[in-house]
């Protein structure tokens, strides 16, 4: 602390204003704790609002619209060729979507009495933060919640600094629609943003180092998406690694393992994200960091330091906004002395491609690996009335249940609207519903949600 600085005192200092941080801060304030959020950007929203969930879903909505218009031709509807106004699109995304939500968050903070201060926070000890911003400030806290999020992982073994190589943040800025785009990584970001650029007109080549897209995700669900992407993308190279990138004229020359070098106008690197835990001064506290840089927390979001809690991506996988929000609320409640815990059975996952993919709980593969017997049922959307009316019978719904009790243990779905559909399955798994419960619940007709009922029915019939 600089001589003459006045340290202010608060009940809770939240470091990071993303979904983990703002959810924690709002709950702290609701529970009567004086709370300040320190965010490097002096605003609430974090990666999710400014460079993640929201802008990517806005662009995916545009891609979905374009795809629908194209498909409409099959139904005899012709709208002509789309004309893309990039400036208008960027303005809509920045102002009507991101800006509107940002103003909403700022208003909520104000109404709850949560102060947001700008600057980079560095811990000086287990009770003190130094804020390095426009002005320097020292904050003494009874408790801190670290919610500093994550950052894109670098491509291992490849070093290049080039305006033609971008991460997801750069890709979401949509500076242009390159003619030839290489996407490195066939995970969430590679597939979502690859879909955006391919639909807007780029020739997208995707490189994935493992033998399939979305490694670890149920292959029954990935199949329909992989087939669609084979048509949408110019090429998908599995089992392939990028060995070198060279700046070349107005683009990048890319060396791929076992293939000829290829030129691209832009490259998007999307090979995972890493917790943002470096440079936080954690060494001045008792907080423990694991080998991957994640802050180690228990089910109450407590670190090893009794004054410091953590929430969100900085605590490791799964790095999803809804998990961060739940953890933030748990941390706040525990600090306020409430009996809360992050004891959720499922954290649903959604890939917002077309078709969408969503899953939660136990998968068939995880059950197999654990040697756990399960019953599995699949329902093809070729038999769904609603899917037929939408012209989208390419979907599939899947349930994993305990063979003895009939309790629903896991669920997956691929098809349009999967991201919304998974909510019912998450509730079923979270509340240990039986397949019979799902089968005997009246689902409105004709809806895609009926597919849960149909899938569960096949299981209950087999049980009798
Ligand atoms: P962040 O949202 O990363 O917020 C951390 C904040 O901390 C930032 O504002 C940062 O400026 C601040 N900060 C960092 N260090 C300091 C410091 N020392 N001092 C002060 N402030 C600091 N998840 C989903 O669930 N659904 C999606 O559809 C989805 N889409 C995504 C799309 C993309 C392209 C990306 C990149 C991610 C996506 N995610 C999605 C993941 C989601 O964005 C994260 O899981 C979520 O933002 C994590 O929230 P957080 O609060 O932990 O951290
Ligand atoms: P990811 O972990 O989802 O996928 C990374 C992919 O890159 C994997 O398939 C991996 O095998 C591959 N890969 C790794 N190294 C490679 C290499 N050298 N060459 C080729 N391929 C390589 O990571 P991501 O797509 O960067 O996304 C990061 C995280 O952000 C996600 O894990 C998720 O937590 C979050 N996210 C969520 C959503 C959503 O919820 N819809 C959307 C975007 C991002």
Structure notes:
The protein is an alpha/beta fold. The protein has helices at 19-30, 46-51, 53-72, 86-112, 168-173, 188-200, 219-232, 321-335, 364-369, 385-390, 418-430, 435-440, 450-463, and strands at 7-15, 35-39, 115-118, 120-125, 128-132, 136-146, 150-152, 165-166, 180-184, 203-207, 235-237, 242-248, 251-256, 262-264, 266-269, 273-275, 308-310, 349-351, 357-361, 375-380, 396-401, 408-414. The protein has 13 helices and 22 strands. The relative contact order is 0.12. Helices cover 34% and strands 24% of the residues. The longest helix has 27 residues, at 86-112. The protein starts with 6 loop residues before the first strand and ends with a helix. The protein is globular, with a radius of gyration of 24 Å. Strand 5 and strand 6 (136-146) form a beta hairpin. Strands 1, 2, 3, 4, 5, 6 and 17 form a seven-stranded mixed sheet that branches. Strands 8-15-9-10-11 form a five-stranded parallel sheet. It has a five-stranded antiparallel sheet with strand order 18-19-22-21-20, with helices on both faces. The model has no long low-confidence stretch (mean pLDDT 96). The protein folds into three domains: 6-152 and 275-335, 3-Layer(bba) Sandwich (FAD/NAD(P)-binding domain); 165-271, FAD/NAD(P)-binding domain (3-Layer(bba) Sandwich); 349-463, FAD/NAD-linked reductase, C-terminal dimerisation domain (Enolase-like, domain 1, 2-Layer Sandwich). Helix 1 (19-30) packs parallel to helix 4 (86-112), helix 3 (53-72) crosses helix 4 (86-112) and helix 3 (53-72) crosses helix 6 (188-200). The site of nicotinamide-adenine-dinucleotide has 27 residues, from helix 6 and strand 18.
């Amino acid at each position: 602390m600089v001589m003459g600085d006045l340290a202010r005192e608060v009940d809770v200092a939240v470091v990071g204003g993303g979904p983990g941080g703002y959810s924690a801060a709002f709950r702290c304030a609701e529970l009567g704790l004086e709370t300040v959020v320190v965010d490097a950007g002096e605003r609430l929203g974090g990666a999710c609002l400014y460079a993640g969930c929201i802008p990517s879903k806005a662009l995916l909505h545009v891609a979905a619209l374009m795809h629908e218009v194209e498909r409409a031709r099959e139904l005899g509807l012709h709208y002509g060729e789309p004309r893309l106004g990039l400036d208008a699109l960027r303005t809509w995304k920045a102002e009507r979507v991101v800006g509107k939500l940002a103003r909403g968050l700022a208003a909520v903070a104000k109404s709850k009495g949560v102060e947001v201060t700008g600057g980079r926070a560095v811990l000086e000890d287990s009770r003190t933060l130094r804020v390095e911003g426009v002005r320097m400030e020292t904050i003494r806290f009874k408790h801190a919640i670290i919610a500093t999020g994550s950052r894109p992982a670098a491509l291992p073994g490849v070093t290049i600094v080039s305006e033609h190589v971008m991460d997801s943040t750069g890709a979401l800025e949509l500076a242009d629609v390159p003619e030839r785009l290489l996407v490195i990584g066939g995970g969430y970001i590679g597939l979502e943003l690859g879909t955006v650029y391919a639909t807007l007109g780029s020739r997208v080549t995707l490189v994935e180092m493992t033998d399939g897209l979305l490694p670890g995700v149920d292959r029954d669900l990935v199949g329909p998406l992989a087939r669609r992407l084979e048509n949408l993308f110019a090429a998908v190279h599995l089992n392939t690694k990028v060995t070198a990138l060279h700046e070349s004229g107005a683009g990048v020359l890319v060396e791929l393992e076992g293939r000829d070098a290829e030129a691209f106008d832009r490259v998007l690197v999307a090979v995972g994200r890493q917790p943002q835990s470096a440079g936080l001064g954690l060494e001045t506290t008792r907080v423990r960091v694991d080998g991957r840089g994640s802050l180690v927390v228990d089910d109450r979001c407590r670190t090893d330091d009794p004054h410091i809690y953590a929430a969100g991506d900085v605590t490791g996988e799964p790095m999803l906004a809804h998990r961060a929000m739940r953890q933030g609320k748990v941390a706040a409640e525990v600090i306020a002395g409430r009996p809360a815990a992050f004891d959720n059975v499922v954290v649903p996952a959604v890939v917002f491609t077309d078709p969408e993919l969503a899953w939660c709980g136990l998968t068939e593969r995880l059950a197999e690996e654990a040697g756990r017997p399960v019953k599995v049922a699949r329902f093809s959307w070729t038999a769904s009335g609603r899917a037929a009316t939408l012209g989208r019978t390419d979907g599939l719904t899947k349930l994993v249940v305990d063979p003895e009790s009939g309790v629903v243990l896991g669920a997956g779905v691929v098809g349009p609207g999967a991201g919304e559909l998974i909510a019912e399955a998450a509730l079923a798994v979270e509340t240990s519903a039986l397949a019979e419960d799902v089968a005997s619940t009246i689902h409105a007709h004709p809806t895609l949600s009926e597919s849960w009922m149909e899938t569960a029915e096949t299981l209950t019939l087999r049980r009798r």
